[in-house]
Design brief:
The structure is a homodimer. By secondary structure, chain A is α+β, with helices and mostly antiparallel strands. Chain A is about 25% helix and about 35% strand. Chain A has a 5-stranded antiparallel beta sheet with strand order 1-3-4-5-2. At the A-B interface, helix 4 and strand 2 of A face helix 4 and strand 2 of B. Strand 2 of chain A pairs antiparallel with strand 2 of chain B, so a sheet runs across the interface.
C-alpha cells in the first residue's frame, strides 16, 4: 500500500501493476440511502423501510449505484485529483456482492491490474484496475473492473 | 417496441429475447451536471466551466456516473416499477462513448439479450440486457450490459 504523494502529480508511469491504493472510507447513512435512491433508484427496498423489510433483502439497502458513486468520490479525492486524468471510456464489470445497509462503513481500494500505453497517441495510456469497497466486517461488498486514461509524464 | 402495460405486473417470463423497451427521456442541465459531480465526481471537467474548456473535452461534460444514474431512474420509473424485481448482482460492461453536455436530451432504451431461469431457485431468473442512452442527435452516448433478477410468474 502506497502513501499518498501530496502535491506530486501522478502520471500513467506512476501506476505500477500490483500497486494497491487505500482510498479512505465513508459511512452510508440511512438518510443518504433514501436520498440517493429517491432521486435515482426508487425501488421499494431502497426507499421504503417497511416494504424493504418484506422484500428478499429483509431491510433497507443502498442502491448499488450509490455504492459506485461513493467509491468514485473517494477515488477522485484520494487519487485522481493528483493524477493526469483524461477520463474513462467505461468499465468492464461491476458486482454488488453483499447488501450495503444503514451505517455500514465502506473502505475503498484500488489495485493496478494492467497498464497499457496507447498505440495511437503517445501522450497517454490506459490503466486497468480492480476497485473494491469493503465493509466494517471486512466483507467485499462491491468489485469493479475499471479503465482509466492517464496522461504520460511529459 | 412494446407499450407499457399499465397496472400489469411483469415477471421473468415477460422479458422476451429481442424485445426493446423505450424508457423515456431526460434533459441533463448544466446545474444538474455540476450538482451531481460536486457530490460524487468532482473532476475539473465536470464541475469547473473554465478548466473544462481547457481540458481534452473542450467544455463541461457530465460524469459518466450521472448518465448511468439517470438511466437507472428512467428504467425504474418506466419498466422496473411494474416488474417483480429482485435486484441486480451487477453488470458486465459500461461504455461512455460520447461526452454528455449541458442541455443534451437523453433517451433510454432497454433490449432483452438473454433470459435464463435460475438452476438453483425455481422462483426466479436472470434477464441480460443491452441498455442504451441516445442523445438528441441519435448518437449512442452510453451502453451498459445489465443483469437483472426477476421473479417468475407464480
Amino acid at each position: 500500500m502506497l502513501e499518498r504523494w501530496y502535491g506530486v502529480m501522478r502520471y500513467f508511469e506512476d501506476f505500477v501493476v500490483g500497486d494497491t491504493f487505500d482510498l479512505g472510507s465513508a459511512t452510508i447513512t440511512r438518510e443518504s440511502i433514501i436520498a440517493f435512491a429517491s432521486q435515482y433508484d426508487p425501488q421499494p427496498f431502497h426507499v421504503d423501510e417497511e416494504r424493504a423489510r418484506a422484500s428478499v433483502f429483509g431491510g433497507l439497502i443502498a442502491s448499488g449505484w450509490q455504492t459506485t458513486a461513493v467509491f468514485m468520490r473517494l477515488f477522485v479525492d484520494n487519487l485522481l485529483s493528483d493524477a493526469a486524468s483524461m477520463g474513462s471510456p467505461g468499465l468492464d464489470e461491476i458486482r454488488w456482492l453483499k447488501p450495503v445497509r444503514p451505517d455500514d462503513r465502506l473502505r475503498a481500494r484500488f489495485t493496478v491490474v494492467e497498464a497499457r500505453p496507447s498505440t495511437r497517441r503517445a501522450d497517454r495510456g490506459t490503466v486497468y484496475s480492480l476497485c473494491e469497497m469493503v465493509n466494517q466486517r471486512d466483507e467485499v461488498v462491491m468489485t469493479l473492473k475499471g479503465l482509466h486514461i492517464l496522461g504520460r509524464r511529459p
